[in-house]
Write a structure and sequence with these properties.
five-stranded antiparallel β-sheet; alpha+beta
C-alpha cells in the first residue's frame, strides 16, 4: 500500500505526480483515510512504460493479534478506576505506534510467504522498499517507543496487581512479549525483505 499527497482529480481520471511527470492511473482502487488517498494495485502509464505497484497486506495472523490486543486494552480502559487510568496511559503511547507499524513496518511481511517459496520476483515489488527503508531509518525511534510503552505497561501491571485484577496483568505481560517479538523477529525480518529485494531486483 502506498500513498501520496499530490494526487489530482481531472475529468474523472486520477493523476499521480511521479518523477515530475503526469501519468494516468488505471486499475485504481482508491479510498479515503484520514484525508489521504490510498492506492492499491495500480498501473502508472508513461511514455517509457508501465510502472506497477503492489498492495502489501499485513499477514492476517498479525492483524488479528493487533485487533485482539486493542480489544483487551479497551476492556482495561473501560474497567475504570486506577486500572482504567493506567490503561489509558498505555493507549496514549501505543495507538500512534500501532499506526506506524500498520503503515510501513508490518505490510512488507506480507511478501514473506511468496519469497520463501521462491515465487517470481517482479518489479512491482520494488515499491515495498519505501516501507523497509523507512523502517530501517526509523528503527531506533520505534525501539524508543517500545520502551515508553513498556514503562506504561509496567505501571498497569503494578496497579492491576494491587487491585487483584490478574486479567489485566496477563494482558500487559502479553503486550510486552509482543513488543519483544517485534524487536527481535518482525522488524528485522521486514528490513531483510527489503535488503533481499534490492539484491534481486
Amino acid at each position: 500500500m502506498m500513498w501520496e499527497d499530490d494526487i489530482l482529480l481531472r475529468g474523472g481520471s486520477y493523476f499521480y505526480d511521479f518523477l515530475n511527470s503526469k501519468g494516468k492511473l488505471t486499475e485504481v482502487g482508491p479510498y479515503i483515510l484520514d484525508s489521504k488517498i490510498y492506492l492499491s494495485n495500480i498501473e502508472v502509464i508513461y511514455p517509457l512504460g508501465i510502472f506497477k505497484y503492489m498492495e502489501f497486506k499485513i499477514p492476517e495472523s498479525l492483524g488479528l493479534e493487533h485487533d485482539e490486543l486493542h480489544r483487551q486494552l479497551v476492556k482495561a480502559i473501560e474497567e475504570g478506576g486506577k486500572v482504567g487510568e493506567a490503561a489509558k496511559a498505555v493507549a496514549d503511547v501505543l495507538h500512534p505506534h500501532f499506526e506506524k507499524e500498520e503503515e510501513y513496518a508490518l505490510p512488507p511481511l506480507g511478501l514473506l510467504s511468496s519469497l520463501s517459496k521462491q515465487d517470481k520476483i517482479g518489479s512491482e515489488m520494488k515499491s515495498v522498499l519505501t516501507m523497509t527503508d523507512r523502517l530501517k531509518a526509523d528503527l531506533p525511534h520505534m525501539i524508543e517507543e517500545h520502551n515508553r510503552i513498556v514503562t506504561a505497561l509496567d505501571n498497569l501491571i503494578e496497579v492491576a496487581k494491587k487491585e487483584n485484577k490478574t486479567e489485566f496483568v496477563q494482558f500487559a505481560e502479553k503486550l510486552k512479549l509482543h513488543a519483544k517479538i517485534e524487536e527481535q523477529v518482525l522488524y528485522p525480518t521486514a528490513i531483510l525483505i527489503g535488503e533481499y529485494l534490492k539484491l534481486r531486483l
